[in-house]
Design a protein that fits this description.
This protein is an alpha/beta fold. The protein is built from 13 helices and 15 strands. The chain has two domains: 183 residues, NAD(P)-binding Rossmann-like Domain (Rossmann fold, 3-Layer(aba) Sandwich), CATH 3.40.50.720; 169 residues, 3-Layer(aba) Sandwich (Rossmann fold). GO terms for molecular function: alanine dehydrogenase activity.
Length: 372
Amino acid sequence: MIIGVPKEIKNNENRVALTPAGAKELVKRGHSVYVQHTAGEGSGFQDEEYEAAGASILPTIEATYAAAEMIMKVKEPIEPEYKLIKEDQLLFTYFHFASYEPLTKAMVESKSICLAYETVEKADRSLPLLVPMSEVAGRMAVQKGANYLEKPLQGKGILLGGVPGVLPAKVLILGGGIVGTQAAWMAAGLGADVTIMDVSLPRMRYLADVMPANVKTMMSNEFNVRKMITNHDLIIGAVLIPGAKAPHLITRDMLKEMQPGTVLVDVAVDQGGCIETCKPTTHQDPTYIIDDVVHYCVANMPGAVPYTSTLALTNATLPYAIQLADKGWKKAAQNNPELVPGLNIINGDIVYQAVAEAFDMDYTPVVKYLAD
């Protein structure tokens, strides 16, 4: 198969979908890998390293899309890329369709095959290609939140871990999944007073067992959320419903109940956000303020640490990419049920129900395409 790796063109996105080591593994199996010129530079990988691994360098994004049967990306295609996508071309990347209708319609019109990293799912319901970036984003959420609590950045002027004789900051984490767990470990390690809220008692029992003493658990419901937001300094939104829009756990009216300088970090922003006042921001302009509450809503947080993120992502995606390249998307999905929920759009049909429901569009069961 011919695999194309274009340079990411989303604002301040420095990750790349494939490392030179990953390219070498694909080339070893007889596949052709085309990497756009300087695609890996932001992550610390030079064109020469890809060439040494057996890949070929193409000068432009247009040439990369034109050559490839499978496109490997990190972030969803943005508008300048829509016209480059061909019918029957396989796109393997993060899409988060349910949060952006124009992208969904563009991919339907392209008649391409869209296989989303974020909905590839194991039998135990875990999301293996979302986990590495969730780990990065969860840890970064605390770093960024701690930074924006500083007074020059319009936060409360609180040091996250406090000092002897001064209480530490209070951190509230909404969601006890991968993002929430990683955020809790990070905040606890810095000495903060941490509370994780979730709707699953089994998950909270697990977290109560493994977390240090400065992390507490609490059932998530509107009453408890309203109570907790009044005296917490950093609030991290870490809610995920695979393939669907995140629910709003913090609504517009709740901001008035928060103390001035409270910092909100919504890691769920690329799925619509679990904070109603959330809107996607960029690393270039990451925050805005509503009702004296600081909002940090960068939609590609791991893009700020591209070396770590690219290695972590390729570690997870490469085994699936090899299956797709070796067998083609249809046979790979027939042989590996983990790939089946990753299929979101096929030849103009939406085959992931939550995406169709998000925009009241027609849904086609994926079995139509996988039946022999």
